[in-house]
What we know:
The structure holds two protein chains of two kinds.
Chain A: E1 2-11, E2 14-24, E3 29-33, H1 40-47, E4 55-60, H2 71-74, E5 75-78, H3 90-100, H4 105-114, H5 130-142, E6 148-152, H6 160-175, E7 179-184, H7 187-193, E8 196-201, E9 204-210, H8 211-218, E10 221-226, H9 230-239, E11 243-246, E12 252-255, H10 259-269, E13 275-280, H11 283-300
Chain B: H1 26-38, H2 41-67, H3 79-83, H4 87-108, H5 110-117, H6 121-155, H7 170-195, H8 198-211, H9 221-228, H10 232-240, H11 258-282
Amino acid sequence: MIEAVGLTKRYGVTLAVDQLSFTVPPGQVTGFLGPNGSGKSTTMRMIMGLDGPDAGGVTIHGRRYRDLPWPIREVGALLEAKAIHPGRSAYNHLLFLAQTNSIATSRVDEVLDLVGLTSVARRRAGKFSLGMGQRLGIAAAMLGDPGVLLFDEPVNGLDPEGILWVRTLLKRLAGEGRTVLVSSHLMSEMALTADRLVVIGRGRLIAEQPVDEFISANSTHSVLVRSPRTGELGPAFESAGGQLSRQDDGSLVVTGLSAPLIGDLAAEAGIAVHELTPQTASLEEAFMELTHDSVEFGAHHGEVPAVAGAGPNGEGAR
Amino acid sequence: MTTATLPTDVPAGPGVLRAPDGHYGMVGVLKAEWTKLRSVRSTAWTLVAFVVAILGLGIAISAGQASHWNAGNGPGFDPTNVSLAGFFLGQLIVGILGALVVTAEYGTGTIRATLSASPLRLRFLLAKTAVFGTLLLVASEILSFAVFFIGQAILGTSAAPTATLGQPNVLRAVIGAGLYVTVLGLLAVGFGFIIRHTAGTIAAFVGVVLVLPLFTLPLPEAWRHDVFRYFPASIGNQVLMTVHGPEDGGAFLHPFSPWVGLAVLTGYAVAALVVGGWLLNRRDA
């Protein structure tokens, strides 16, 4: 269980995290979702006690990170890929972490095996690909067999096989009763992995709810209708309470009416319908819509606007 | 191209590893720091450079004195100092090594892994300082005695005077040489924790050891001597010297005695580590 209360972090004039409160319960994968630069990485560093909050606080099982008696036996984290000395082998990187928390050396071999790095464990990590660096980071997170796990963008740089493996791993870990927080800027990834979502934009909490609730609350349902006589169908739909949007190809997008009702209305009017397709706005669109609002909301309050063109890891503001 | 396949099974549930009672301790952090130190090539290469500098210069300068010896060199000739000449270069190499053991953590991001496993940051600083200081002390004392005996053996092939450990000040100079570079190495560790960047840390160290003393030259004569004795270079001179001839100390008339000098230098290193520790605790990692 992770609990953040009023977490606030400022870097110079930039408010990276703003009064952020959320809870990460055990036994579920909680997706931590937000655009690049929204404060996800900063929040994760504050959970780990690496960055100090300017206000508020965050606890793990009721304790601050630095008060944990055996930190990496209780919390495992993948914070950034390849945060490792390029001249040190994967084995020695994991070995020094294990030694710090009196974890048996045999566990180093176990986690190397778990992530499939055994054959390259003695090589200098500087030669690793981004994906191998990610897997080493996951091995480090698993080293102390912790009950709480944080993963910052864990699928970055992984091939499709690796991505599938990480998704399976996250679900399995949560299924074992562990607390799992995984960040992503990709809603589609979260839709596949997460049970719950904590959504932030510009450092503020936008939503904290189960994934299905988030989707139904934030996506609009519409129905695509194709017919040779859409001009005549339109008024019938409008009088039944639907809103119409005429597409360039002559089709209609109807919101506010279910597909069966639309079919019935067309049948009553005796007009042939060639296509009737319910459409659910993608989660990605719902997410963009939400975070777009949060950016505007922030700017109206005289804050510094988000830096345009921030790189794929732009949240690493330090 | 390296390929490593992903296993399909995932790990056993929580509680497989039972945490012992109590709290992670200093012993584990010391072991971890030793693992870090021995597991990167820069440590080995820098130590090789250190050995080459001390032995190479000590042997070369001893041999030079032996082959060009004439009796006129007699008064003020300091055979111990000649054999320890390599420590003037060695002090820069330990500065680089001391800087790297800290700044490599920051440069590579390892610091975040380190502080995740040891969030009590001063415990980490103390462990790193202790492990590095011990390695440096052992290496430099072994080298100091080795180059002393080698140097005296070379000088002994000529008519030049040679020193023995039983002569006044000689044992102090040989032990002191190792202590001097060890304390300088720890000063660099302190600078590393304050500055956190490799180039900046090495520049600050070289500045304090080599460059800063030059700025005393424009000072009035009377002050210059009193100021200069506080610099590591002056302290090092005194530590490595066993014979005090009439012109001893050159233009610098009020040096600290060797032990007082080493105590002052230790004070600098402790001050740098205290400031570094204070910043380490306050700053974001």
